[in-house]
Amino acid sequence: MTSPYASPFLLSLLLLLSIPVVFLLAPRLLPPKTLPAIPDADESDDLALFRRAILSSSSATPTPPTSAASYFFRRRPAPKIAFLFLTNSDLVFSPLWEKFFRGHTHQFNLYVHADPYSFLELPPTPSFRGRFVPAKATQRASPTLISAARRLLATALLDDPNNQFFALLSQSCIPLHPFPTLYNALLSDNAGPHSRHRSFIEIMDNMDNDTKLLHDRYYARGDDVMLPEVPYDQFRAGSQFFVLTRRHAIMVVRDMRLWKKFKLPCLIERRDSCYPEEHYFPTLLDMQDPEGCTKYTLTRVNWTDSVAGHPHMYGPGEVSASLIRELRKSNMTHSYMFARKFSPECLEPLMEIADSVILRD
User: Which residues form the signal peptide (predicted)?
Assistant: First the structure.
């Protein structure tokens, strides 16, 4: 006859033996923990905006003149630069940008995507008034920064068919040259296929020869998640900030194939390797039109003493004419046109050298 105490003992033994089995199988049975995904409502709003931008760009193609006379008398509008500011804090350098834009009203447009959950003081400068676009929340280590940039591109495409170049900047960026220098550099660069203008975007197949770093970025969403759309050997790295041509802006807004991979949230345990905005744009453009890109950026960043993924932030004591001239230097065809990061306290010393240095070549 079985002892009445045998059953509880047996249950306890089985429970004890099952604990290692649970720990072994749990990762396979339970979904991995990820960072927050983009809300479906935000994604739907964006898709509607992108469709309008694509349709508008298709219908905005100019029709050829019917005769030589009409061609002679028809004036083609001057190309414009769309400045796209992506921010989650005050645009403290707007007075400096106002000086930069002054006298060139018909050669640029300006658009600001400000995180709606940040408390921003509206800039007093005329160029920035009324230029805030409908925005969604942004978060570091998430594809929301890609969405915000695409949202800015789509808005600028819709707003003005003469926007031919799209410069993505942050609130900590400053200009390094006067406006005509940038404008002439963009219009004179036509080294792409069929003498087309190129986009200025950094594209690297390694990260300063650190293959482990690139490897960790690729697998930040999980093993083999990026396949088959993004093979590892086609995964690229680059700067978050760029200047795109109109055809590349349309290409970015139209894309759904790569976006369905890059919009996936990173695993929580790999969040330190999650920088989607530094990979989506260079990967997409390098896969679709590598010859149409310079593969370098026009925005200078100092990574010599970066902290937690943030580059060096210049303080007011570092601002000088010699710093501006040093930041302009580049090993590429064109010198750097913008620089980051500058602390808000740099505004006053920057304004003191704006006319004599920054806005004078």
Answer: 1-24
